[in-house]
UniProtKB/TrEMBL annotation:
The entry's keywords: Calcium, Glycoprotein, Golgi apparatus, Metal-binding, Repeat, Signal
Annotated Gene3D superfamilies: EF-hand
UniProt-recorded Gene Ontology molecular function terms: calcium ion binding
Coiled coil, from the record: none
SUPFAM superfamilies per record: EF-hand (SSF47473)
Protein name (record): 45 kDa calcium-binding protein
Length: 357
């Protein structure tokens, strides 16, 4: 009996170990493009988010890391109303809200939306994102300028940043004052070096190594400054440019970062991602169709307040849903393609449309 119990115990232990290894293998998914390209993870720490440049910038076609902004259409169509069309919102309420938006876009009230009307609307919604960033920046600037003198030094910012990462604020301030080694881990040091580059880039002429509120806005949101937008473009080109010519070919633009694809579904996602980037490169970013994207072309593509870009975007949005090919959008078409415009699918889009309108 004792021998049987020992054998049973060993078998049970072996079974538990196997289960643990299988579960660990499932969760320990190797890094690959399909896992990382949607959005760069953002810290949940409120204090850190207040003073760190955001990875995602509303109303810009491209993320800081060079990935396409998959929510761009919704951002420039909905503006500050994006949150109202979340996954849990009620479909009938969403439909009613979308009808209200249509009546606002339709400026001349002819029950259809032209490219010019959509362009005007896109510019208005982009401006909403700009104003929202300015409001948030006031709070962020106060967080790094507690004495309220209207200027922040790099060292003052560095103290607040490290405090948001869990370091003791007083100890860090003292070490910086005495010019002592902060003994940071490699990852934190790399983030600081990157932030420092952006910091001094945001310091307008004459440079004084101090940022005022407007300069701090450019530090957090490069779309608010021509110089910082150019710097963001340089960073993207630097990360994607493989031959060092400071230009991008289509092969460089669609190259997947190093990683592994562990299953067919992930491969399909990556293939779709490549096709999407190739189409965007050839049909939109490469303005002169020479197969090369220069920094100037990428900067124009990235500029959120470029009226020519807004008109092209308006035409593209109309083309997606323009089923009767009249180069205008009717209410039924926008409701039918609600998922494209709002991210929410309306199952009963056709019911009583004219009555509600």
């Amino acid at each position: 009996m004792a021998v049987w119990r020992n054998m049973w115990s060993r078998n049970l232990l072996t079974f538990c170990v196997c289960v643990f290894l299988v579960l660990h293998a499932i969760n320990a998914r190797p890094a690959n493009m399909s896992a990382s390209k949607d959005k760069v993870p953002v810290s949940k720490d409120k204090d850190e988010n207040e003073i760190l440049p955001p990875d995602h910038l509303n109303g810009l076609k491209m993320e800081r890391d060079g990935h396409l902004n998959k929510d761009f259409h919704q951002e420039v169509f909905l503006g500050k109303d994006m949150e109202e069309f979340d996954e849990d919102s009620e479909p009938r309420r969403n439909r009613k809200k979308l009808i209200e938006i249509f009546t606002k876009v339709d400026a001349n009230k002819d029950r259809s939306v032209s490219a010019k009307e959509m362009q005007r609307w896109i510019m208005e919604k982009t401006e909403e994102h700009f104003l929202e960033a300015q409001t948030e920046n006031k709070n962020s600037f106060r967080a790094v300028d507690p004495d309220g003198d209207g200027h922040v030094t790099w060292d003052e910012y560095r103290v607040k940043f490290l405090a948001s990462k869990g370091f003791n604020e007083k100890e860090v301030a003292e070490k910086i004052k005495r010019n002592e080694d902060l003994k940071l881990d490699e990852e934190t040091q790399e983030v600081l070096e990157s932030l420092k580059d952006r910091w001094f880039q945001a310091d307008n002429h004459p440079t004084d190594q101090l940022l005022n509120e407007q300069e701090f806005l450019s530090f957090l949101h490069p779309e608010h400054s021509r110089g910082m937008l150019q710097y963001m473009v340089k960073e993207i080109v630097r990360d994607l440019d493989q031959d060092g010519d400071k230009k991008l070919t289509v092969s460089e633009f669609i190259s997947l970062p190093f990683g592994t694809v562990e299953n067919q579904h992930a491969q399909d996602v990556d293939d779709d991602w490549v096709k999407e980037r190739k189409k965007e490169f050839e049909e939109v970013i490469d303005a002169n169709r020479d197969g090369i994207v220069t920094m100037a072309e990428l900067e124009e593509y990235m500029d959120p307040m470029n009226e020519h870009n807004a008109l092209n975007e308006a035409k593209q949005m109309i083309a997606v849903a323009d089923e009767n090919q009249n180069r205008h959008l009717e209410l039924e078409e926008i409701l039918r393609y609600s998922e494209y415009f709002t991210g929410s699918k309306l199952m009963d889009y056709a019911r009583n449309v004219h009555e509600e309108f």
